Task: structure prediction
Amino acid sequence: MRIVFSAVFLVFTFLTFAQKPVAEKPKERKSLIKSAEQKAKEKAQKAPITSYKIYTLERDTTFVDTSLTIKKEYDYNYLRKDNFGLLPFFNEGQTYNTLQYSLNQFSPFPEFGYKAKHFDYLEANEIKYYSAATPLTELYFKTVMQQGQSLDAFITMNTSERFNFSIAYKGLRSLGKYINQLSSSGNFRFTASYNSKTQRYIANAHFAGQDILNGENGGITTIADFESKDENFTERQRLEIYLKDAETFLKGNRYFIDHQFRVNPDKKENNLYIAHQFTYENKYFEYYQPTVLSTVGTKQFNRFGPSYVSSLINDQVKYNRMYNKIGAIYENTTLGKFQFFTEDFRYNYYYNKVYIYADRIIPSQLNDVIHTVGGQYEYQKNNWKAKLLYSNSITDQDLTNIDGKVTYNYNDKNKITFGYQKMNKLPNQIYNLHQSSYINYVWANNFKNEKINNITVNAETQWANAELQVSSYNDFLYFSDDSTNDSIQLVSPKQYGKSIKYLSLKVNKEIKFWKLGLDNTLLYQKTDQSENILNVPDFVTRNTLYFSDYFFKKALYLQTGVTFNYFTKYYANDYNPVTAEFFIQQKKQIGDFANFDFFVNARIRQTRIFVKAEHFNAAWAPTNNFYSAPNYPYRDFLIRFGLVWNFFQ
Result:
């Protein structure tokens, strides 16, 4: 140690005495001639908006849009997209009841389940990739119901012309107005994109880490207290609820890469590519309830029936999956793209115990390996664009997927798309296996595959936009209401052996006159079924009357108006927190209530400011008849505000 210290001291002394005093530099005169570096920097700062591109996994391209339109008003919410057809629960960050059934998307592979917690869970095909001339930042902020805020921060930049990365995080915390209604979530995303100089190699990759925590109060116990408009219950925390300390928690991490390599060095009339897509994802779901008994007045009972334990329900399930898709693509500039691929899908879905009964055994896990082969054809020339996909399993599972879409662009204002999908879908894991400390929530099944047929027509014209879907569902899987009284909620998975026919027609038309605009969206739905399994409202409508104009020498763009939302009465699906799934019920209808929102939005350069009085007509309505689901009230009158701010550096 003495030798080491001596050596350090000698080196330090040498460096100290070896330094020479720095002479003061004369002040440099600023050159009036701009250097090449300065010119390049100024040129980049003046980059057009079209140089800030956004890509999807399908390589569809859009550009960063800082304008303020009525669509931006619809997109300004927790999901960051138009939520027409979704009915939010009271607190921000909770689940949504689905009014428009055609919003559901299906995968032929078995999924995790617990779908009520996945509305804000970003799937792989929802992640965006970027290319930016200069660093781009976007900040989203919005107030919440009580004690918290909603924030989404994002930054992307190109380190070179060929490599881009982005980092984003969306965080939410909202206490809510009712007891035990806390929402807390975080969505972290990291993306990277690379393409070689000759576009011979292209890669998109991302990591997503997401967690969603919700307090679960099970809904209010006394509907009469809520509907009466009694001043004693204006403070919503005075309303009695079923569960005072229950929580659900969903967490997931995903690693993803999609890349392809062109075999021939230069792009020619005929090209050959090797493509590969890889996904590894793990998920974890927990239902946590320290106090098992629910207390309503002087009565105590188990809300979800008898349990194996007298305290601390802590149900946990884990799931991981690995997906590989390898294919070869032949591209001809005249004929289009022909792809042949094989898929490898592996999953593990598991608990930490086995239930053994006298007549059955409930296993602790499900796992399988699924191999498929298929082909895909893409064509794009002149006004036509087409895509057709077919895949079929070559292992024991009966899995088939046919998906086709053809688009014809008549001109810039008129486009029509035809789509067809036929799918033989494996059941989600939760239908075939579920374990819980609640006795009636333990099951093991071997359901048949669901058969799904969809025909869609989407027309975007200069007169109106219309979406038509005609669907047929066979061996439909759902959760049923097995309760014998209102106090105890029991659900179980079922399979409907008959066919369900579904029709939806959505029409949108915006009318503009002078500085006024009237945006109208109307949805009509109809089902044909022997029993009430797939329940939807017949009509859903949204109508917005707004005024827009520039002020202060066009420094400020203002948009203000009123939005009317309405849907007809129907037996809406109810929500069960133990399974985090919706289930069908035939006891209570919701709907047939008017919902008016008043908003004032403004844009100053790249900043959009939003102020909204949500459901303001609730203040003078004669009765509180608004619900998101039976026992779950819809949102009261509330004023919220926030902004979306873009920085171009």
